[in-house]
Specification:
By secondary structure, the chain is α/β, with parallel strands linked by helices. It has helices at about 30-40, 50-55, 60-80, 90-100, 115-130, 160-170, 215-225, 230-235, 250, 260-270, 275-300, 320-325, 335-345, 350-365, 370-380, 385-395, 410-420, 425-430, 445-455, and strands at about 15-20, 40-50, 85-90, 105-110, 135-140.
């Protein structure tokens, strides 16, 4: 019979810091699981980073949702035997203080693929290694990392179909159980702050937020798997039906892992073989999520400009008056206005409608996709640089695998096809059949011709 593990002498303890970022969960958390398995004591830390909080594209809705997730995570960590430490300040300085106060010698975290995060993490790693701190980073936020799905010549994909084919050939990583913190307490716990309020972070929102936290994310996944997932391909494009997963805000902050979502989808396909094609379409959305992250990783210029450089020269009209009408949901095009009002009221918008309003801003109002991208980032609960940027550049015809510039959504035709009874429109635009509803701010046919001219100017 194995002898029980002796309690370590404090000076010889292997104390690890787990750095929580967009992985706010205990189940299937790669870095946290490894830290709890390898260290004698684990101190989980979350740092409120002013570089993110004060960024012009950071929004109150996603920050408020994150705070709710952190409140839930704090309780989950305590129930699992740990204590979540909150800090606020410049990340490198706060991390140095955390290690100084805790006397930890190991750092565990899950990798991030955004340009700022890469610079931040590189600076922390450089300092840590210089201070003889062991650093371990893990693949966690994606199913396949940017360098795991490459062309045969080792170059990254720029076309989704070919990428998806190679993606599907790769093996899946297993789903890990919930982490349990080691039973040993560290004698040097770093100082922390009380979880701040949204107001204390300098932000405000009146939105009624959906329930947040790991258990809520898992509950939403179960609801989806036993209902909408089984007819996803047939119904996902109809906004009145609300048959999408609604998992994006939870995935964005890491309350549920993409591996867990994929595993549930694959189990559903085994249980309901007739629904396999429906489920496969949903899996395609997980592939798009990885695809846009590998685009951001290999082509970081997309964060500030067009993926296809020649389209950086498109001479957008950028009429502030038209942009305001779009932003406020008063363009006179019902499905566009419905989508923008849904976003303002809930922090979320149906994916089909996201494509419609994005196409309308760029191709009808002739406003740059970058204005729309930032507006979405500031108002979405699931604001995500890679996916948001990829979607906007697709709609604007400036990105990878984009909607061809000569194919322009007709917002009236889109409404007739995807909201044929007008239920979605009437919900968000109740004055649709009254004189109070505004007249169209532009003529679609005329604007279409202008949009085509703008793209012809920079070359087909």
């Amino acid at each position: 019979m194995a002898k029980p593990r002796a309690a370590p002498i404090f000076d010889a303890m292997r104390v690890a810091i787990h750095w929580f970022r967009a992985d706010l969960r205990l189940r299937d958390n790669r870095a946290l699981h490894a830290a709890c398995a390898e260290a004698d004591a684990v101190i989980p830390v979350f740092i409120f980073d002013p570089a993110i909080l004060d960024a012009p594209d950071n929004g109150a809705p996603i920050t408020a949702f994150m705070l709710q997730m952190l409140a839930s995570l704090e309780k989950d960590v305590a129930a699992a035997g740990g204590r979540l430490i909150f800090r606020r300040g410049r990340v490198l300085e706060e991390m140095q203080a955390v290690f100084r106060e805790s006397k930890a010698t190991l750092l565990f975290y899950n990798r991030d693929y955004e340009p700022y995060a890469r610079e931040r993490d590189a600076a922390v790693e450089k300092w840590a290694r210089g201070a003889e701190i062991e650093v371990r980073s893990f693949k966690d936020a994606v199913l396949h990392e940017p360098d795991e799905v490459l062309k045969d010549d080792g170059k990254p994909y720029g076309v989704f179909t070919a990428y998806a084919r190679k993606w599907r050939q790769r093996s899946r990583d297993p789903v890990l159980p919930a982490a349990k913190f080691p039973g040993h307490a560290t004698p040097h716990l770093p100082h922390g702050i009380v979880l701040p309020s949204l107001k204390e972070l300098g932000l405000h929102t009146d939105l009624e937020l959906p329930p947040a936290g790991e258990e809520e994310a898992r509950a939403q996944l179960r609801r989806f798997a036993h209902g909408p997932l089984l007819h996803y391909r047939e119904r996902r494009d109809f906004p009145a039906a609300d048959e999408t997963s609604r998992l994006s805000p939870h995935l964005r902050m890491g309350a549920v892992s993409p591996r867990t979502v994929l595993a549930v989808a694959e189990r559903a396909a085994q249980s309901y073989p007739r629904a396999r094609a429906q489920i496969d379409t949903f899996v395609g959305e997980l592939i798009w999520r990885d695809f846009y992250r590998q685009i951001l990783w290999h082509f970081p210029h997309v964060a500030t400009g067009a993926f296809q450089p020649r389209y950086q020269q498109v001479k957008w009209r950028n009429d502030e008056r038209l942009f305001a009408a779009w932003r406020e949901g008063r363009t006179g095009f019902p499905i566009v206005d419905a989508g923008m009002r849904q976003l303002a009221a809930t922090g979320w918008m149906h994916n089909r409608v996201r494509m419609i309003v994005a196409s309308f801003l760029c191709k009808d109002l002739l406003v740059t996709w970058q204005w729309g991208e930032r507006h979405f980032m500031r108002h979405l609960l699931d604001a995500d640089l890679a996916s948001n940027n990829g979607g906007w550049q697709w709609s604007a015809s400036t990105g990878t695998d984009a909607q061809p510039w000569f194919r322009i959504f007709n917002p009236l035709a889109q409404a007739a096809r995807f909201d044929p009874e007008g239920a979605y429109i009437r919900r968000w635009v109740p004055e649709i059949d009254t004189p109070a509803y505004p007249k169209p701010v532009v003529d679609h046919a005329a604007q279409r011709q202008q949009a085509l001219a703008l793209f012809r100017e920079v070359g087909e």
